[in-house]
Amino acid sequence: MCQMTKNKYATVDFDQVNEKGLKSLIATINKTGVTVIEVDSSNRATTKDGVKVKTAKLVLNDGQILGIQVNDTGDISSVKLNGKAIPNAQSPDIKTLGTVMGQAARKNSAKFQKSLISKAKRVANPVDKKPAVKSNFQRLQEAKQRNAQVVAAYKSAQNSVSFNQQQITDLRAKLDKETGRLNNEKARNGELKRRLKQLKAGN
């Protein structure tokens, strides 16, 4: 259960740093115009700077992630948005903290979505600054990596209710393009293996 505290930190039940224990915080965040769709937390304590802590990630509908760290006293001592600390986020109560967290995510949503599109474009159209001779295996591995990155960006786009259809269509086209590249590299790799096998058999 979330509580008030006399110090500067809002507190939660350290035994329940999970969806149930963070219910009040999530409800407050959801009132700001964003929606928490998933809570990622093992509810297991680790030690940091000699203090037992637990962490939780709140996944939002636009793909952004709000992260919190809870000390063994129940204090929410760290609040982050997409891995970066939210300025002036510390608050003495859950309602204020949840509002600050939600508003920060809402204000950053458009910027976050643009970064997804930009990242997908860079992945789909890589530029080699230093031309080099690469083995077929290297090209195959790079194709797999680019494909995985575009898939991740595409899935994030699907999770965003505010992502317009044209942006999703563009990402799908890039995904199809990368899948084609990957299949071509696989086919080339298979052909080289067959040739190598034939050469060995000829010897």
Helix content: 40-55%
Biggest β-sheet: count, sense, barrel? 6 strands, antiparallel
Number of strand segments: 6
Number of domains: 2
What is the strand content?
15-25%
Rg computed from alpha carbons, rounded to a whole number of angstroms: 23 Å
Structural class: alpha+beta
What is the straight-line distance between the termini? 74 Å
Q: How large is the count of helical segments?
A: 4
Averaged pLDDT? 83
- Shape estimate: elongated
Give the SSE string.
HEEEEEEHHH
Q: What low-confidence regions span 5 or more consecutive residues with pLDDT below 50?
A: 1-6
List the helices and strands and how they pair.
Blueprint: H1 23-30, E1 36-40, E2 46-48, E3 51-60, E4 65-71, E5 76-81, E6 84-85, H2 94-124, H3 136-159, H4 165-202
Antiparallel strand pairs: 1-3, 2-3, 3-4, 4-5, 5-6
Helix pairs in contact: 1-2, 2-3, 2-4, 3-4
Provide keyphrases for this structure.
203 residues; alpha+beta; 2 domains; 6-stranded antiparallel beta sheet; 4 helices; 50% helix; disordered N terminus; plasmid; coiled coil; Defence against restriction A N-terminal domain-containing protein; DarA_N
Can you describe this structure in just a few lines?
Strands 1, 2, 3, 4, 5 and 6 form a 6-stranded antiparallel beta sheet that branches. 50% of the residues lie in helices and 16% in strands.
Overall description:
Residues 13-109 form the Defence against restriction A N-terminal domain. This protein is an alpha+beta fold and 203 residues long. It has helices spanning 23-30, 94-124, 136-159, 165-202, and strands spanning 36-40, 46-48, 51-60, 65-71, 76-81, 84-85. A hairpin with a 4-residue loop joins strand 4 and strand 5. The longest helix has 38 residues, at 165-202.
